Amino acid sequence: MDKSEYKPQEKRNVALSSIAAAIFLTGFKLVVGVMTGSLGILSEALHSGLDLIAAIITYFSVRFSDLPPDENHNYGHGKIENYSALVETILLFITCVWIIYEAVRRIITHEVEIDITIWSYIVVISSIIIDISRSRALKKAAIKYNSQALEADALHFSTDILSSLVVLIGLIASSFNFFYADSIAAFAVSIIVLIISFRLGKRSFDALIDKAPPGVSDTVKEILDNHSEVKYYHNLKIRESGPYKFIDVNIHVEKTLDIMAAHNICDEIEVEISRKIKRSQTNIHLEPDIDENP
């Protein structure tokens, strides 16, 4: 993406609007859940409450991750997004533990009386509509700005869509006096959350331990292989920090090339990499090609 097209304020506005949506959904679900006694809706309220915390974390992470490198943070502040995703994972696991505990307790103690009202359906359907809108907006911004934090937040809202659908099924079943369906729906919600939290945790952990992001190495290698001036390359290293990717590689060129010609080759490669891998920074170490190299 061209720097002129990069607008940090747009990222912050999307994250801020997600906070507003999470506040509304959490309050709405909590009120209706208490009124009806629905464990499915109450679990959704807790889920949305943690989504609110996650949305707040996302807002501050995208706000500070774009700070430029300084003397103490030579690679910038992009890792803040990865740490925020890790915190969100922990919050999601806490949610699952509570949901499973409450579902088991209600089944064992037979505390499954639920007052199904029109508000039960209104809150769930409203949640699905809002979640679809927010997840699309967040996903669009995440792709545009290559933001892991926004993508994680979009995943949260996408999870809410699935879990709300499960709760809706539980409410319909409860309307036919199958009240245990509500607790079963709560179990289904916890499974969905566990799967999403595992994916988020793994991705954030991979970034924190500097695991090369998937597909990036193949793209770089393809670019280098297509440059006939590059006789040989080695020590390709790639690390990810939030929305940014840092690439280091050693290339060998014809030893008879003058400095300016060799420098131009490096510039061409860096430009092509930045065009195909957004928000990337490439450092190329230039070496003369010698016969001993394979």
Sequence stretches where pLDDT stays below 50 over 5 or more residues = none
Query: Which percent range describes the beta-strand content?
Result: 5-15%
Report helical residue fraction. 55-70%
What's the N-to-C terminus distance?
36 Å
Structural class: mainly alpha
What CATH first level of the largest domain would be assigned? Mainly Alpha
Shape: elongated
In CATH terms, the superfamily of the largest domain is Cation efflux protein transmembrane domain
Mean pLDDT: 80
What value does the Rg take, in angstroms?
Answer: 25 Å
State the order of secondary-structure elements, H for helix, E for strand: HHHHHHHEEHE
User: Reading side by side through the largest sheet, how are the strands ordered?
Assistant: 1-2-3
The tally of structural domains comes to 2
CATH topology of the largest domain: Alpha-lytic protease prodomain-like
Gross CATH architecture of the largest domain: Up-down Bundle
The count of helical stretches stands at: 8
Q: Major sheet: size, sense and barrel closure?
A: 3 strands, mixed
DSSP, total strands: 3
